[in-house]
Amino acid sequence: ILPGGKIPADGRVERGESSVDESMMTGESMPVSKAPGSQVVCGTVNLQGALAVRVGKVGGETALAQIIRLVQDAQASKCEVQKLADVLSGHFVKVVLLISLATFAVWLAITHTGGADLIYFGQRLDPTVYSL
């Protein structure tokens, strides 16, 4: 792997010494020194010297593929608190609507039976409008 090249698979350095930018995997901005016997990870970038790497894992077995799979699984699933919040919010909406309808019905009954003064700012209101 020449300087500036991306490491194509997980493996172990057989020959050469270099520093590798592993920031995309670890978040660490400082390059990591690699010598024979050091492990390298797919997707990282060789910065200085040429490296001969024995491939250990490819494709879906690489550390990068495992991280991608974990992130996708985490995004696809909801935690228990989110599930509970979804269920409760569904019930909450129904309860609020029922309370609203009950309040409207009670006030409508009160206004139609003459139990409330329908004068508002000097004007007589329709019982339905007053109930709203």
UniProtKB/TrEMBL annotation:
What the entry lists under InterPro entries is as follows: ATPase_P-typ_transduc_dom_A_sf (IPR008250), ATPase_P-type_domA (IPR059000)
Domain P-type ATPase A stretches: 3-72
Question: Subcellular localization, per the record?
Answer: Membrane
Family annotation (Pfam families): E1-E2_ATPase
- Where this protein primarily resides, as one coarse class? membrane
Q: Which GO terms describe its cellular component?
A: membrane
TM spans (from-to): 92-110
Outline the segment boundaries, as ranges, of region: Disordered. 1-32
Instruction: List GO molecular-function terms, semicolon-separated.
Output: copper ion binding; P-type divalent copper transporter activity
Q: Which GO terms describe its biological process?
A: copper ion homeostasis
Lineage top rank: taxon: Eukaryota
- Tell me the keywords, alphabetical order: Membrane, Metal-binding, Translocase, Transmembrane, Transmembrane helix
- Residue ranges under compositional bias (Basic and acidic residues)? 9-18
Q: What is this protein called?
A: P-type ATPase A domain-containing protein
